[in-house]
Design a protein that fits this description.
14 helices
Length: 227
């Protein structure tokens, strides 16, 4: 088990560099919204949805209806359904770890599990579990530290909420560079801009996400050919 732990720790160092800083930004934001470190901890343990946790802060601050929260959460994280299908059978074979592996399959963890090369002699299932566990630990550590800092250290909060925008920009650029077709990226941008202009900043997000999902479903055959 020690060999698997060391391998997982070494493999997840790049994720730690991003998760601790992004988690800290989330913690500062949720603290500024009136929720302390305990809420940051519980959110990162049970929600653990990265970008959706940033969106959640805005939804909580604006007292958004539960139905709007549910729809927005589903649409923002719907991508997990599609790329998680490839791991369902593998995770089932991991027995009691199966529910946790489903919960902890974030974008970055998925990327690591898809690309990692396991050394001979190590348990792949145990390595995958520790990789997922370390990744979530980094996010929890960052969010709790950020929430504590937001309460204890007075500083100007201006610009901290741009971390969410930066995160989405990075995801957009990464998809643009890696995916053979630019249709998904262009679809998302057009739907977001059109929805913002038509429905305003308070209501545009669920509509834009629903429209983007509808367009991509309609173009599924073309996208699969491109891939």
């Amino acid at each position: 088990m020690r060999k698997e732990l060391r391998f997982a720790l070494k493999t997840t160092i790049p994720v730690a560099c991003g998760y601790i800083f992004l988690g800290t930004a989330f913690g500062i934001l949720i603290s500024n919204a009136g929720y302390g470190p305990v809420w940051a901890l519980l959110s990162s343990v049970f929600v653990y949805a990265g970008s959706m946790q940033f969106v959640m802060v805005a939804l909580l601050s604006s007292a958004a209806p539960l139905a709007a929260v549910a729809v927005t959460t589903f649409l923002v994280n719907a991508r997990h359904i599609f790329y998680g299908l490839g791991f369902v059978e593998r995770f089932r074979r991991m027995g009691a770890k199966y529910p946790y592996m489903v919960l902890s399959l974030t974008d970055e963890t998925y990327s690591v599990l898809c690309s990692v090369q396991y050394p001979a002699g190590l348990s792949e299932d145990r390595c995958a579990f520790f990789i997922s566990l370390f990744d979530q630990f980094y996010w929890i550590l960052g969010s709790v530290l950020g929430a504590a800092a937001g309460q204890l250290i007075p500083f100007d909060m201006a610009g901290v909420d741009f971390a969410m925008t930066a995160l989405f920009v990075v995801i957009f650029v990464d998809q643009w560079k890696q995916y053979p077709s630019h249709i998904p990226a262009v679809t998302g941008a057009v739907c977001a801009i059109a929805s913002l202009l038509l429905f305003g900043p308070a209501n545009f997000l669920p509509i834009a996400l629903a429209a983007a999902v509808g367009v991509l479903i309609a173009l599924r055959g073309k996208l699969e050919d491109a891939a």
